[in-house]
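Running log. JK asked me to keep both predictions on one page so they can be read side by side. First protein, sequence followed by its tokens:
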Amino acid sequence: MNNNIILELKNISYTYQNNLILNKVNLKITSGEKIALLGKSGSGKTTLISMLNGTIKPTQGEVKLFNKSFEELDGKQKRKITTIWQDLRLIEDLSAEQNVNCGLLSENNFYFALKNLLNISSFKKAHKYMQLCKLHNSIYDKNIRKLSGGQKQRVAIARSLIQGSNILLADEPFNNLDPKLITKIKTLLLENIDNNNTKKSSKTILVALHRLDLLKDFDKVIGIRDGKILFNIKRTNLKKCHIEKIY
């Protein structure tokens, strides 16, 4: 981990339908950090992630990625950030393998997209990431609608991993997974394992969680409540008093 700041929120506030969702948030994320974002439902975790990846714009303040605003970024820079959404955002008319392959669309041309849509694209790379996520080959060509919640969760995770981005944001990525799978998927995300089961260079990760037992292996913990960051500390410094502030 170094002091290279790659994501920054400067005095961010966000209002939606007259409700203040984020309130004067300041945050700096440096390259290689593994951050857990804690907060109860409705605390602002999802909105904070949406702000960090440029999905929504602040009502007030400034968001910087690689020291540039999102409007200044080129396509290559934007592809360096990937998000696993809590609602997964899978395409229900496509198969599991097609959904995973969709993670490659941003770096391929129209013909790749068309071949993927027509199910004549190559799924070799997608299958490797699906195997890493413990998805059985019997579901590769199944329609997303026919999969269980846990299978859909892992398809969304495989889709994010195949992109090979430098920054990963994840909103409750362990929902619908049993304890053994949680351990496996958490290792995949934090250790940045590639499709050859090889650990790659350090990735910057921010994961929204609600389970305290999953904090091990994170570097830092951020606590948010009512749209305000109440603490931003090393995981080893986390105490009961911090938890009581946000729950």
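And the second, directly underneath as requested:
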Amino acid sequence: MRNPVVTVGRNAARFMTAYGQVTILLFQTLVAFRKIPTYLPQIVEQYSNIERRSRPLVIVAASAMGFILGIQIGTQMDAATPKWYEGGLILRSVLLEMGPLIMALVLSGRVGSGIAAELGAMQVTEQIDALRVMAVDPVEFLVMPRIVAGLVAVPVLVIFAELVAILSGYVSAYFTIHLSWDGFMKGMTRAFAITDVFASLIKSTIFGVVFILFGCFFGMTAKRGAKGVGSSTTLAFVWSSVAILVLDYVISAVLFFIW
């Protein structure tokens, strides 16, 4: 049986090494931003892949989230609480947490894993090595366009999802506690704060970079064979999900002290 201390030490070393490599990849991508005009067609293509193909899944996930919030909040309100409070609770729940967090996890499975599978297939078939032979930087050609596209596409998808979730929350509240549209709007108007919108945009932007970056990293470091590609896809989702959950707390805490 292995010494537990040795096992923990080796796993910690692998963890720190992997995150160090991801950080290096991030800085290489930032340096590659100077080539954005050169790779504009690839950026537009990646934006279409991320935004347009994710839209149906986002609609389903956001609708389910809104319906669940409407039921859960409505059933917890007692007779002494004005019904219009639910509008504000749904709005702030969606903007501050549920929208950016749930959508980031959903898109991590849809987009991040897809990128890991795509680049993993290119890695095991030596297409990435062929790019290097032709003096094409894989970071500039493969990673940077996806990161830039994600910086725009993910916040757009999250905003769209939040609108769908809020409307779904109203429908659910209407059938649960018979909340009128005027009452729902009254609750949202009283609870609305522009900083909540900024917080949602900040979180969605950072989360988008995180799961796309992990997808690119694990795809470009995939091992040989179909098993290696499958493993890289799983690792991309798991690591990005953990990073998103940790960052969600960190960002929320920082914004709380700032605002």
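Observation for JK regarding the second prediction: The two ends are 52 Å apart (CA to CA).
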